[in-house]
Design goal:
Helix content: 55-70%
Order of helices and strands: HHHHHHHH
Number of domains: 1
Shape: globular
Distance between the termini: 75 Å
Structural class: mainly alpha
Strand content: under 5%
Length: about 220
């Protein structure tokens, strides 16, 4: 019993610094290659879809370069964000995954990064990423003018002339996940360098309520 108590005491004391380190927020960040983030996200979309894919594009490189606490995080838990959260077509899962990863890495600044990524997503011809070995090909990009999965996917499908279950639509979403991971990594790297400046203001302040900027999409 005495020996056991000594081992438990010594082990418990040795684990305390690790427990405190794991609990600190935000977690440590080391700059990652945006291209690598994109490639991981593209491949992982075909495993667990958009939210998981984009989050993994940021978090897997950090698991490799930083280790704990990132290696303790089951990234598969973020699968629920697929299809705008379990198929409800709300916030695009890529944006949810990016926001989760940015929050772990940059804390409060991660929220500003997420805000900028969402604004970029709504106003950019996407996808911007082209895989070296695409699993399908398609002709069109589109500007969603909305952060909603339903709007982004539906307007692109109409433009491309394909249905939801088509390989083209799947690959388009995989490339969107990669594009968002690349953009998020780029902004996180700027934050790590001390050069990041938020580019988009508060939606609440702009509209006096939580809102999108494109009211005409649903309230025309």
């Amino acid at each position: 019993m005495a020996v056991g108590a000594a081992v438990v005491t010594a082990g418990g004391l040795s684990l305390l610094p690790k427990a405190r380190a794991a609990a600190q927020y935000p977690w440590p960040y080391k700059k990652i290659d945006p291209q690598k983030a994109a490639e991981i996200a593209y491949e992982n979309w075909y495993k667990e879809f958009c939210c998981y894919a984009t989050a993994s594009g940021i978090l897997v490189p950090l698991q490799e370069s930083v280790g704990e606490p990132y290696t303790l995080l089951p990234i598969e838990a973020f699968r629920f964000g697929h299809g705008g959260t379990v198929g409800w077509g709300t916030l695009c899962g890529t944006l949810l995954g990016a926001s989760i990863a940015a929050s772990f890495a940059a804390g409060e600044k991660g929220e500003r990064i997420a805000n900028d990524v969402i604004q970029w997503y709504t106003s950019t011809e996407l996808p911007t990423f082209t895989p070296a070995s695409p699993k399908a090909t398609f002709k069109n990009t589109n500007t969603s003018n909305s952060p909603l999965c339903h709007v982004s996917v539906s307007t692109w499908m109409e433009k491309e002339g394909v249905d939801f279950k088509s390989p083209e639509r799947k690959d388009r979403c995989a490339r969107i996940a990669a594009s968002v991971a690349m953009k998020t990594a780029t902004l996180l790297n700027q934050w790590a360098d001390g050069t990041y400046e938020p580019s988009h203001g508060s939606q609440v302040k702009a509209h006096d309520r939580p809102a999108q900027s494109n009211c005409d999409g649903c309230h025309g």
